[in-house]
Amino acid sequence: MHVGILTGGGDCPGLNAVIRAVTLALVNEAQASVTGIERGFLGLLTRQVRPLDARAVEGLLAQGGTVLGTHNRCDPFHFFGAAGADCSGQAMAYVRELGLDALVAIGGDGTMSIADRFSVLGLPVVGVPKTIDNDLCHTDRTFGFDSAVAVVADALDRLETTARSHGRVMIAETMGRYAGWIALEGGIAGGADVILLPELPVDVDAVAAFCRTREPHEGYTLICIAEGVKLQGAGFTVREHIADSPDPLRLGGVGAVLQQQLSQRLASEVRHTLLGHVQRGGSPTPYDRVLATRFGYHAAQLVRRGEFGRMVTLQGDTIGSVAMSEVAGKNRIVPVDHPLVATARGIGVMLGS
Ligand code: F6P
User: Fold this and answer.
1) How far apart (Å, rounded) are the C-alpha atoms in residues 197 and 181?
2) pTM
3) Is the CB of 107 under 6 A from ligand 1?
4) Does 12 contact ligand 1 (Cβ within 6 A)?
5) pLDDT at res. 238
6) pLDDT, averaged across the chain
7) How far is the CA of 242 from the centre of ligand 1 (A)?
8) What is the arithmetic mean of pLDDT over 341-350?
9) Is the pLDDT of residue 247 over 80?
10) Is ligand 1 within 6 A of the CB of residue 131?
11) Exposed e or buried b for every residue in 217-235, given b needs 16+ CB within 10 A?
């Protein structure tokens, strides 16, 4: 058996741990040969691959990023390198030339959409869900999320001591795209006083009033805001438009806008910190190393059983799988009645209005 592995979309802690687990499981249990495809689907067009074996994946468990490289604009069905032309046939021909019996695609919703289209063309594909945003449907967790939450919690711990010392309102802006999972869990873990999510309305006057009530007693306020929050009367805060990308909006900067708006309303000094890609880099947490290993092992089992067109999932503590078509192009946002929302509200966290 000859199996290809690729990592698509943005990088994320735990990708290397999945590559390692898929490779080791296939080599140990099926004596398979494994080929890494470089820079996501781009490698199928540029013909960049490398052999993977037990030696090649040594020491990868705790390494951040992806040793295979990745690309978040390469959709072979709309290839940016050929003015948007459909180059999927070229990719399929290369897969046949390599003699791949299966492909394991590790990525987010964009990668799952592309993988699903290849699956329809007859490519035997298995998907593994990756994203720090935790916004893929049909899985309770994606690997990388726990690592991002740990970074946010650590940042809030640090911001708290300086906020307290100066009597400031401190704003930390998290990633997460259109979903508030990182801000919600990171905010709770870091003891934020205010957590602002894209899923809940934000009334800046109400946030200011809440900060004001804290001025005489606590003297400071810690705010955790997700990048996808729309402030009153405004749309998304967009840092950049990427014309030929399947995900053309790069969000970022809403924390700075909130700083301006709160400064006009408060006596206290207001400052913001954009956490940015720090949340995506570095070593995966132990939880993510274990989850990535479980996902990778299960992906190898799906390949061996010939269960293709499916993405690995975690439901409760059970690893399973779902048809990729069920996941492709969809996002899982925070339900407004999620128990964590109620928990935050119940302990006095201000949620925007
Ligand atoms: O989807 C993961 C993510 O990190 C989002 O949270 C963020 O909005 C986006 O990717 C950033 O992408 P890029 O690295 O291309 O700026």
Assistant:
1) 8
2) 0.96
3) no
4) no
5) 87
6) 96
7) 12
8) 98
9) no
10) yes
11) eeebbbbbbbbbbebeeee
CA 22 / ligand 1 centre spacing (Å): 25
Classify residue 76 by its DSSP letter: G
CATH topology of domain 149-280: Rossmann fold (3.40.50)
Q: Which two tokens stand for residue 292?
A: 């990535």
Q: Which two tokens stand for residue 46?
A: 């540029």
**What are the domain boundaries of the chain?**
2-143+284-326, 149-280
149-280 matches 2-143+284-326 in CATH topology:
yes
Burial (0-12, 13-18, 19+ Cβ within 10 Å), 134: buried
pLDDT of 337 reads 97
Read off the pLDDT of residues 3-27 as tens digits, 9 standing for 90 and up: 999 999 999 999 999 999 999 999 9
Q: For a pocket test of ligand 1, which of 136, 184, 250 has the largest count of ligand atoms closer than 8 A to its C-beta?
A: 250
Please report, for residues 232, 247, 311, 345, the alpha-carbon distance to residue 178 in angstroms, rounded to integers and kept in the order given: 16, 12, 22, 21
For the CA of 228, the closest atom of ligand 1 is: 8
Residue 248 scores a pLDDT above 90: no
Residue 234 pLDDT > 90: no
CATH class, 2-143+284-326 region: alpha beta
At residue 276's C-alpha, the angle toward residues 272 and 278, to 5°, is 115
pLDDT in tens, 192-206: 999 999 999 999 999
Is 133 an annotated catalytic residue?
A: yes
Please tell me the distance between residue 213's alpha carbon and the centre of ligand 1 in angstroms.
35
